[in-house]
Amino acid sequence: MNKVKILFFATLRERAGVRSVEIEIPTGTTAKSLKEILAADYPNLSPSMQSVLFSINQEYAFDDAVIPENAEIALFPPVSGG
């Protein structure tokens, strides 16, 4: 098992009801799989998981990225501007 720290920002923090959480995930878990785990654990986040910005150890990551041991994961809502 792999212990990771997850940080929630902006509206995701409000929906999750926590600022951060530490969880254990199976070794080899991808970003996409972690999004599915979080959507199941925090149902209010489920609608946001398709468009959330995801970073692993302060670098943006895509759905196929494998999460390394003891990683810090940050989730950001999509940003729009004009």
Could you give the count of β-strands? Answer: 5
Evaluate the radius of gyration. 12 Å
Task: State the end-to-end distance.
Answer: 43 Å
- Helix-and-strand structural type: alpha+beta
Using the alpha-carbon principal axes, give the shape. Answer: globular
Unreliable spans are none
Strand order in the sheet with the most strands: 2-1-5-3-4
Helix and strand element order: EHEHEEE
Which SSEs are present, and which pair or pack?
Elements: E1 2-8, H1 11-16, E2 20-25, H2 31-41, E3 53-56, E4 59-60, E5 72-76
Parallel strand pairs: 1-5
Antiparallel strand pairs: 1-2, 3-4, 3-5
How would you explain this protein's 3D organization?
The protein is of the alpha+beta class and about 80 residues long. About 20% of the residues lie in helices and about 30% in strands. It is built from two helices and five strands. The chain has helices at about 10-15, 30-40; strands at about 1-10, 20-25, 55, 60, 70-75. It has a five-stranded mixed β-sheet with strand order 2-1-5-3-4. The longest helix is centred in the middle third of the chain and has 11 residues, at about 30-40. The radius of gyration is 12 Å and the shape is globular. It starts with a strand and ends in a 6-residue tail after the last strand. About 20% of the residues are buried. The model has no long low-confidence stretch (mean pLDDT about 95).
